[in-house]
Amino acid sequence: MKILIAAAGSRGDVAPYTGLGAALRRAGYDVALATADTFAPLVRDAGLEFRSLPADTQARGGVVGGRALMRTAAAFITELGQGFADAMAEGADLVLLSTTTAPLGWHLAEATGIPSLGVYLQPTAPTGDFPPVVTGSRSLGRLANRATGRFALHMADRVYEQAAAGLRRRLQVPPASASTMRRRQERAHWPILYGFSTALVPRPSDWRPGLEVVGNWWPHHDPAERLPADVEDFLRAGPRPVVIGFGSMAAGDGERLSEIAVRALRRAGLRGILQAGSAGLAADGDDVLTIGDVPHTLLFPRLAAVVHHAGAGTTAAALRAAVPAVTVPVTADQPFWARRLAALGAATAPIPFWSLTSERLAAALDQVVKQQAFTRAATRAARHLASEDGAGLTLKAVRQLTDG
């Protein structure tokens, strides 16, 4: 049986599906992952077939918000829609759709009759428990949380409207708006599996049937892989360091962020590793090392703390390693995950990206490294994450869908 996973966005929006796909392949399925060309090596290294999607967010990694974020999202979705059908044309018996690809995938599934399943990395369904994750706002009360959650979905449908209409014309099926398709899926209790931990987001009791939180899907990495020699040497040369990185965020802001990071580390008396990322962080010195991409699962357990942008994947990776964090959320769902980490006691209060200074970062680092309560909270969460089996529960759902 051929399973196609369709995912689009930044590295953090794609990498978890390499681990999920590898688990499905080990179970005997033929698995392809459709995503941007940038991530072809990740897909092939996991032993999966790569299919190309046209939209690449690597070129959109600057810090944006508000209307600029909506414009960027609309341009990304329009580009994605233009080539989505091509990626699906090579055939599949089951399609797994991410948060970003589902509003297009629904139309293809309807036109072809191929069954589909949602595999989301963020809690998108409206609930009274919290406001929509993309707003970055604090709880507004149960009624207002649900209302703003529905409004957020309406705004997302508007972003997809043009791309969905073009896709339906290409598929030669009758017109149906993005919001109409969403209502159809909800009435049918279309199944969505959420790939994050209940330690961070317990399943809301007011969610409809068919929505389940299964635990994380971890990015694939080769068990034989080791950290680069210079990283090993640095780790062994002194006390546990702090890693500072912003993933795919903050392109073009590297010089300012690097200066802040180094000053904060030295003010707090800590050794540090700067992960270059899209920002291009870089610094030299006996107490600072600059690195590129390395597997979180190898590096994070050997750290004193992680300073990160609170993307869903990095948030989970730090918890899995039982390492406390200082979060500097930039946009989209990052403030949500940052507050969740702080509520667990595994991170300090978030420092908004535009408020970051070396003084604030040094104070937060001093707090998170010296106060053992943060490490204890991260350790408790790590035990919780270890008890979950996101890939295993997804495999079970796939078998129920395909055998039933």
TrEMBL record:
Annotated ranges, domain Glycosyltransferase family 28 N-terminal: 3-62
InterPro entries named among the record's database cross-references: EryCIII-like_C, Glycosyltransferase_28, GlycoTrans_28_N
Highest taxon, organism lineage: Bacteria
Keyword Transferase among record annotations: yes
Stretches assigned to the Erythromycin biosynthesis protein CIII-like C-terminal domain: 285-388
Keywords: Transferase
Pfam families given in the database record: EryCIII-like_C, Glyco_transf_28
Protein name: Nucleotide disphospho-sugar-binding domain-containing protein
Species whose genome carries this gene: Streptomyces flavochromogenes
Source taxonomy: Bacteria, Bacillati, Actinomycetota, Actinomycetes, Kitasatosporales
